[in-house]
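We store chain and fold; example below:
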Amino acid sequence: MHIQRNSQVGLVDETAPLLPARRRRGSHPQDAAAPGLDPVARRLYLSHFLSTWNSRVFEFGAVLYLATIFPGTLLPMSVYAFTRGVSAILFASVVGQYIDSGDRLQVVRTSIVSQRLVVATSCVLFHLLMTRQTTEAAELGLLGVCCLLACVEKLASVMNLVSVEKDWAVVIAGGDSKSLRVLNAQMRRLDLFCKLLGPLFIALLDGISTETAILINLIMNLASVPVEYYAIARVYADVPELRIRKCLTIVENPEQSRSARNWILKRWQSLTTLSKKTITDTRLYVRHPVFLPSFASALLNLTVLSFSGQMVTYLLSAGYSSAEIGGARVFSVAFEVVATWIAPWLMDRIGPLRAGLWLSSWQVAMLAVGTVVFSVFQDRPWVSASGIVGGTILSRVGMRGFDLCTQLIVQEDVEAESRGAFSTVEAAWQSAFELVSYASTIVFFRPEQFRWPTLLSVVAVASANIAYAYFVYLRRENDSPGEE
């Protein structure tokens, strides 16, 4: 693997090939290294971009569709989001086992096809609900089906994300830490690009017509399948290491297989196996040396200070216009994009361990300042709301940078055969904390009560900082030479 460095400033050259150039058949040796991005990285980015773009567009689009179909109530949208989040918790171990035991290409292709088909089906159902071609009872039934499809979409999304970011990226980097940082940063920029423009794109279409937005969403999902399918297959073909099976064996009891002759017993055995796998994966997660940074990163999802639906609703009640909220959201994502350059630069100089501590502390400090302004000016709602807006925007540099640092630590320390199990348990914790944030605004649903979810968010971020600081302390203690 080849990473070029600028001799003057020591920065990683992010345009350098991530992999040694592979010679094409019949090509001259001098032509093997093409300028710009390595073809393998380019195809990986293409597949990751399409997957992330479609996921972000549909995730935000579904909220808009439900808001239009069921106006005047947040209940359908809340049930939809809650069900989607719960599925990621309940079936995290199943997804992790499939990632760890399955063929890498088959796993990613399964995630691509299943996610696209589920989204396409959901778009059809949303269109039926939108055109009011069903009875009220049928509407509730279709909403229930949409919730179930959302669960499958969420699991497929997690499967793709974990496989590509936590497994494929590590294998492609080939043990080169700097290359892995570049790969992580580039994919995170793609994610942030999709996070910024995906919702804006579907919102503009929804402004024209919700039916138009649903139709475009459907077409994009179906059209991207062959491109994603081909791109990821080429990456798999060009990196022989991806074809090496991970060292994971699943031992089945033949006596149990022979005795499971009736449906009830089979279902019970499946439930028992799933429960045991969940316990095993959770034990692996909490006992792993990098549990604390992973848990700290997951804990950051327990927040209402992220320009999500909860914070947007409060800002509207405080006097912010939709345009002002949109502008603030653009600034927020822009700061996250900046973090994808700051974090690798900082890690290159002081290491990911210290960089994570600095960035996490920055996030806590900015949110604390914003919360103080929010609390002091309660009698002036717009000024008070502006306090948490400013604090949230500035904190995103620390949040996103800290996420990159912990991701690198986890990638380098988690064994190949355990990456799927570890990462899916981490994803389950992320979903659990996200559900807690939803619950906080269900309990404190009035705008004047928003200070309590805000306080809970700051406490969660501060707790994550403390947990990570303790991990840094332990790591330094273990790395320090023993006393003579």
User: Anything to note?
Assistant: Confidence is low (pLDDT under 50) at residues 1-36, 248-252, 255-260. The chain has 15 helices and no strands.
